[in-house]
Write a structure and sequence with these properties.
Helices cover 61% and strands 3% of the residues. By secondary structure, the chain is an all-alpha fold. The chain has a 3-stranded antiparallel β-sheet with strand order 2-4-3. A two-stranded parallel sheet has the order 1-5.
Length: 373
Amino acid sequence: MPLPPRSQRGCCYLKYMNLIKPKNFKFSKNKSLNSVSRFILSSFILISFFYIVPIIINFADNNLVTKEYTNNSKNILSSTLNKERLFKEDEDFLEADERDLLYDITEENNSEINLVRYTTDEINFVFSQNKFNLKEVRKTKLVKPVNIYLLPEDIKNIKTSEERKEIFIKIVLPLILKENNKIRIDRKRLFSILNKNSNTEIEKKWLEKKYKQYGVRYNDLLTLKIRMDEIPTSLAIAQAAKETGWGTSRFALKGNALFGQWTWSGEGLTPKDADAGKDHKVMKFYSLELSVRAYLRNLNTHSSYRNLRKARTELRIQGKALDSLKLSNHLDKYAETGNEYVNVLKKIIEQNNLKDFDEARLLPSSKDLESLI
């Protein structure tokens, strides 16, 4: 095909460009619209995915997957309260296994390390060096981790009852808080386990250990939740004060027994006024700390204190603080004097303002802080 004259080529080129330009522009515009559409569609799909998937998972959890545990704590505890038969079966199971319930305490009781027994002057010096003051504790609710593991022999020689009471509270308060802390940590771990669909081997072994410690049948998580709980600090101090005469009894000084627990299978001290035919002893402990642990274990497992545990659980369900005066009503079986014993405990709590310590928390020791570094 012959080319047009040179003079007409520029004009033809412009015409050619004018013909194709609108077409390219239209194509570019369509391409942009397609990109925007794809972006919007992709965004919609992505948003829908994150919205729908949780619904599907939740539906599967509730309808398709069989959960081992549910963290519906209030309903679990409430249903357990109505299972009187379950409690009875568990109590029968527990009473034949004192050695199992206290096996960790028994092991530590056999320690060959000799603890140092300080005098009251030496203990007061330690308290002053650590600025451990009960007035400050009542105000700040913070307790210095000063651990005294044996009562001083000369506590009986303290002239005034107020001084004796103060040193006694200073000695037992950190120990009670320490053991309650252990229960609180265990309880938190139990709640974590209850919130899982399945458990690791470590968690299963931990649960087996706790079933044994709390006299609970294997896999009875409901009862374990009720038993694995704290005792109000004021109630523990009051009982220790009553059982030991504020630290002056033979059982406390010779056997580190703060709560007068009886034993038929363990090592103990024979009561001087024991009735003929009764072969029980007052349990001996390696340290005051083990006595506190055994006391908490006793209230949390023995059939005589089932109503105390039930009342404590009801307070938990209602979201209320554990009230030592209310819970003490269920300790009438702790001593032969029954309700008279309960009234004495209430007087000790009220007259000595022991409820001031119920919200107290133990400060971490230097050893605890080192473990975090």
